[in-house]
Amino acid sequence: MSAYEALFRRVLFPLYESGLRRRGTLRYFEEYERNQWLKPDEIAALQWRKLKQLLEQCYRDVPYYKRTWDAFGVKPDDIRTPGDYGRLPTLTKADIRANFEDLVATSWRDRMLYKATGGSTGEPLRFGYTRESNERRTAVMWRGYGWAGARMGRRTLYLWGGAVGNPGRAQLFKDRLYHAAFGRCMLDSFPMSESNMGEYADAIDAYKPEVVVAYVGPLVRLAEWLLATKRRVHAPEALLGGAEALLDYQRDIIERAFGAPAFNTYGCREFMLIASECERRDGLHVNADHLIVETVADGSSPAGDVVITDLSNYGMPFIRYRNGDLATPSTRTCACGRGLPLIERVEGRKLDAIRTRDGHILPGEFFPHMLKDIPGLRRFQVRQRSLDRIDIALVRGPEFKDDGLDYARREIAKVLGDATAIHFAFVDEIPTSANGKFRVTISELTENGQGMP
After folding, report:
1. Using CA atoms, how far apart are residues 6 and 12, in angstroms rounded to an integer?
2. pTM over 0.90
3. CA distances, 5 to each of 154, 195, 277 (Å)
4. Are the beta carbons of 224 and 171 closer than 8 angstroms?
5. Residue 21 CA to its chain's centroid (Å)
6. Handedness of CA 202, 207, 212, 213 (dihedral sign)
7. Domains of the chain
8. Per-residue pLDDT band at 276 (split at 50, 70, 90)
9. Which residue has the higher pLDDT, 273 or 437?
């Protein structure tokens, strides 16, 4: 542990988080650090106690759940086993939009916080959460990142999505100060192109991070460039991939290029970190002391729909929420000794990159990151058939206004320029792929930039 990491973790962060902001993040972090070493049956018992308390509160305080569960003929007292819990109906994004106010607990209506997600499944969503649940999510994130060595206060470079819109000077200054305190260097992956890869490599050499946290797509493309050009850069101790699943061949490319181990993580904006790899890298540990994560399969394959319940968000509880991903569960236990269960792999997220004639490569993550800010946008899909054109299909709701298109064109032009034509089409529905899942961005280009036959 470096001197700054020790100072940050033991003095600076506690002063800021517990003293100045009066948040319980560190207290929850210590709780989760203890929980991970419980035996599997002890974690299951802890999870079940939390679930029973949450279900009782939902039936008493959340109009949507009382109405829906009554219609199904199920009450909290009827939920005596995990099998009984599986009788409860699942919750979808469409359900949330149609019943937004009734999903907010009556006792929490004046104390809620809200966020929006662009949605890797192409369905933007606004959701509410409590202060405690947000602090717990942050604590769980630090625990999971810590397994890969990405502890708070470590010198970390983020190859992530930059800000969209026009944040004010005060916000930009606040962000710079916050990142500096955490030992973070933020690199915007959205302007990445074949012509500026060297600038990203130079930034890594200049900052000399101990850890790199990145969108998988841009990290792989940078790694491929490093290998092709035989460029050597500062080797961090670990690299963490996010936003889409890290496939085995991608892990190999990253590790050969950077000379360091790469770790897979799985999360979504509604819950933050859901699962992540420990030092063994033999599956992803589910944060089962914080969430219930089910995989509901139809029997045609081991993979199933991911269904999640947040055990700490009493303000706008998501009970058995389908987030649109696919994952394969595991019955194994990890040799690391943690009692947290494993997911073998996450396989339902794929965000294709968008390419331009001048060599720009825009990660598919850009579109949910940007389009989440357009009111009334129900669903979207981006498709590229040629280097000169992008087609964006939009399903709009009654709150949608045409100035949302102007905003989208302006933000896309910031990163792609004016050479690529953007065509919007309003549609009533966007079909899923053959496997029943939804892809946000689809590139139909071959490696040479031509459209596929």
Report:
1. 9
2. no
3. 6, 35, 22
4. no
5. 25
6. negative
7. 354-443 (3.30.300.30)
8. very high
9. 273
